[in-house]
Amino acid sequence: MSVWHEPARDLPVVGSPDVLVVGGGSAGIAAAVASARRGADTWLIERYGFIGGLATFGLINLLLTLDDGEGNQVVAGLCQRFVDALDKRGAARYPRAEEWGSLDPASVERWRRYGLIWGAPPDVVRYSVAFDPEEFATVAYEYLTTAGVRLRLHSWCAAAPTAEGRIDAVIVESKAGRQALRPHVVIDATGDGDVFVAAGAPHESVSVCPYLWFRLGGIDDSVAGEAPPGLAFRTTAPGRTLVAWGGPGAVEGKIDPVDPDALTFAELACRAGALAELDRLRAEVPGFAGAWLDDVAKLLGITESRRLVGDFVLEKEHGNTRFADSVAQTGHWTRRGVVFDVPYRCLTTPVVANLLVAGRCISVSRYVHQATKEIPAAMATGEAAGTAAVRALDVGGDVHAVDVEAVRRDLRAIGAIVGGEG
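Below the sequence we write its predicted C-alpha cells.
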C-alpha cells in the first residue's frame, strides 16, 4: 500500500468541556444527561444528524430486557424514566409488574407478538418494552436540552492523541473541517470504540452478520394477529409491523463492521434482501397483502464490533456474582435467572487515565456481550459513566481515582439499580 504524508497543522480548539461524550446512541444519551444533571459542562458529539443510534434510526425498537426473567427488575434509573415518558406519550407497550415471570400462555402469546419473548422454553413474560423510535428520539432531545447538554451533531471522532497516559485532545471532523476539543474527561459511547482505539487501548474485534430492520404499514391486524409471520412484530401503532430482518444468511459470510467497503456492500445487499422479504410477506402471509414499506432502518443492525479489554473483563462464569464495585446490573434477554453485575472496572482501561467507556463496547466477553449490548444495559452503563465522570473532575480527571462507592450512592439516589453488596 502506498502512503501519503499529511502535513502538520494547527487546529482550532472549539471547546474545553468538563466531560465530552462521543456517540449519541442510547448509552451516550444516558451518559451526557447524567453528567450534565450533576453540574458538569457536558458536550455530546454524534457523527449523524440524529440521536438514538440503533434505538431510533436502526429501528431496533425493543428494550430487552429490564428484568431477570423471574419477576425482578434489574435495570431502572434513566432507562425506566424513558419508559415512563414514552408510556405517557402512548408510545410504549409492555407487561405490567404483575405479569413479570408469568407462564400463562395467553400472556406469553400476547407479548410474543410485540417481540418481547425470547429464549428457550418454557416461555415466560419478561419486563421488556416495545416503543416508537421517533418518540424515543423526542424524549431524548427533551432530556438533553433540559439537562443543559451541549449537543453537536454531524461531527465524528477522527483521533484522540494522548500525552502522559491521558487523552490530550479529541480531534473531530465535520463540514467545518478538522477541529480539536480539550475535555477533562472523555466517555466513549460510540459502540465501535472509536475513541479507545484511537487512544491505543487494548481491544478485541469480530466479524458479524448484519441486520436491516424495516417497518410496514397497511397490515390487517385482525388477520395477521392469528398468524404472526416469524420475526414480524406488532408496534405501538395499529396496522403497522416491525420486521426484524437479517442475521445469518442475510449476506454471504460475515462482514468486518468497521470496514467502510464491507459496510457499503452490506447496506446494498441487506436492502435488496429486505425488499425481497417484503414481496414474500405480501404474497404469502395473511394480513400483509396490502402492506406498504413504511421505513427501512438508516443504520445497519450492527450490535458488535470492537470491545474494550479493560481493567476487568466480565465473563460468563461471573453470572450471578456480586461485585463490590458494581455500577450497573443487567439480565440476559434469552436466559432467565442470570443477572450480571457490571463492575466499574469494565468501564476503564489501564492505559488511559481520563477515559470511560459505556454501551456495547465495554470490557466483557463475547458471551456476556449478548446481555450488555442491549439498550437497557447500555443506558445503565452510560448513566454510570456519566455519574463517575463528574466524580473524576474532583480528582484531576483520573477515573481510576474515583470513589466508586460514592458513585454507587449517587446512582442509587436517583433510582438506578447498581448491584454489588448491600
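The chain has a mean pLDDT of 96.
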